[in-house]
Design goal:
This protein starts with a helix and ends with a helix. The protein is about 45% helix and about 15% strand. The strands form 5 sheets. A 5-stranded parallel sheet has the order 3-6-9-1-10. Helix 3 packs across helix 11, helix 10 crosses helix 11 and helix 11 packs across helix 12. The chain has 14 helices and 13 strands. The radius of gyration is 21 Å and the shape is globular. The longest helix is centred in the C-terminal third of the chain and has 17 residues.
Amino acid sequence: MDTFDIRALNEQIEQQSAFVTNLQTGMAQTIIGQKHLVESLLIGLLSDGHVLLEGVPGLAKTQAIKTLASLVDVQFSRIQFTPDLLPADVIGTMIYSQKDEKFQTEKGPVFANFVLADEINRAPAKVQSALLEAMQERQVTIGKETFQLPKPFLVMATQNPIEQEGTYPLPEAQVDRFMLKVLIDYPQIEEEKRIVRLNISGQKPEIKPVLKANDILEARSVVHQVYLDEKIEQYIADLVFATRYPEKYNLGNIKDYIEFGGSPRASINLALAARAYAFIKHRGYVIPEDVRAVAHDVLRHRLGLTYEAEANNVTTEEIISQIINKVEVP
């Protein structure tokens, strides 16, 4: 791709990504700070990927998702996951109609554009697996019929850290369906003061939609045009391969800590997320910084650690950081 093409593409993307600023401004009306959280939700939205948010209660995870849903004129549904939830409560079921003397399909709350799966780790694996087909194939099978889900379709799930009672760890296959796993931390002290001020003022900002569903679908096709150089492709492959064969990248010291590395889905999502990140930054091409910015969120739930890692208090975060620091940047 020559310089002229890149320049033209850059200008085009700069214009077409202008709405990102509107979304960020809209989010800032109710979410103070948490820039990383807002960016992650936008990456999911632009790359057609689901997002898992983890953090202690009260950090505005649910609030952020609801605000984003209000800014985009789409159908929104919220499913509160509980230990007694059944798959039918999520996807729907067949109900017998005495009047018509036949079974009718009653669609569940998963039939919406934005689905908030609140506290997803409070429901058993049976319910979580009901979401698998919806998240991967964008369709749901009830009885003998298969129904397509609306477009765009995005699952945003929240979970409290696993150590609490009454929670079920998410099955590996379920976790892998999430494009990003984002850890939410406490706000800074100045932000905390602003949060208190906003919440005791008694005034709730009115969130008006700034985008339609079609705008999202169009933006996604533009994100696909963001230029990804071969060197960046190589860099992404190297990062993921370093999670599988650390010794080939002079990372023999972490070999015993990794039980399994990222799957090809990790590489795909790393490329998609880096593209969306470049788009959010109003740029028409991906730079290594974009890949590094999304690497933790894309990889942290895709690495399996050994007992040895746990015994030595080695975390996934540290392993990913070591890989990012060691793998050669193009």
